[in-house]
Each structure stands twice: as C-alpha cells, then as structure tokens.
C-alpha cells in the first residue's frame, strides 16, 4: 500500500496554519527554525484587569478617606487636594465602567459569530 503524497499547495497551507498556531501560542518562528517568545510579562489579561480594578478601588478608598479627613478638619488636608483626589477616582471609575461595557460588547460580538 502506498503512502499518499501531499501536493505542494496543501503542504504550504499546512505549514502556514502551523506557523499561525505557533504565533497564537506565543512562539513566532524565525528564519533559522528557532522560536521567538513574544509573550509580554508573566501575567495575562485577567491579571492586568484584576490589578486595574484594585487600583480603581484603592483610588475610591483614598478619595473617601481624604474627604472624611477634610470634613473632620484634620490639618494638612486641603479642599484642593480633596477635590483633585475625588475627581481622579471618579474618572478612574468611569474608565472602568467603559472598559466593562466594551468587554461585554466584544463578548456578545464573539458569541454571535457564525462558525
């Protein structure tokens, strides 16, 4: 029984698919046949998202603490600093809400794709 041969066009397509699979996995083939690691940092998207949410939460907490300190009349806490901290926390929160909205929209788009 003879082994079926793969025509050159199919072999080229198969090689291209394997290269793309390697790129998706984070390894990009180089000219010498070696792989180049393209991952950025040790964390992934979920860790970056988690740290962003923690920073937003910390900014909200700091703004609340500074507002309470100003209301209590603690020395060294000015209205100017209190308002700036509050606005920074508000903008960070709005950014988080917009990020969530875009992630939900992207998720819905992916789920509605025809396969």
TrEMBL record:
Compartments in which it is found: Bacterial flagellum basal body
* Keyword Signal part of the UniProt annotation: no
One Pfam family name from the record? FliE
**Could you list the residue ranges forming a coiled coil in this record?**
none
Q: Which UniProt keywords apply?
A: Bacterial flagellum, Cell projection, Cilium, Flagellum
Q: What is its main location?
A: other
- Tell me if rRNA-binding is a UniProt keyword of this record: no
Q: Which InterPro entries match?
A: FliE
What family, per the record? Belongs to the FliE family.
| NCBIfam families assigned to the protein according to its UniProt record, in alphabetical order | fliE
Please give the name of this protein: Flagellar hook-basal body complex protein FliE
**What's the source species for this entry?**
Alloalcanivorax venustensis ISO4
Q: What is the lineage of its organism?
A: Bacteria, Pseudomonadati, Pseudomonadota, Gammaproteobacteria, Oceanospirillales
């Amino acid at each position: 029984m003879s082994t079926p041969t793969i025509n050159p066009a199919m072999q080229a397509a198969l090689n291209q698919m394997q290269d793309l699979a390697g790129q998706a996995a984070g390894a990009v083939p180089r000219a010498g046949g070696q792989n180049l690691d393209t991952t950025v940092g040790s964390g992934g998207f979920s860790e970056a998202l988690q740290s962003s949410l923690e920073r937003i939460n910390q900014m909200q907490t700091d703004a609340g603490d500074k507002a309470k300190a100003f209301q209590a009349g603690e020395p060294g806490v000015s209205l100017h600093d209190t308002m700036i901290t509050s606005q920074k926390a508000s903008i960070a929160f709005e950014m988080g809400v917009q990020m969530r909205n875009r992630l939900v929209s992207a998720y819905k788009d992916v789920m509605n794709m025809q396969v």
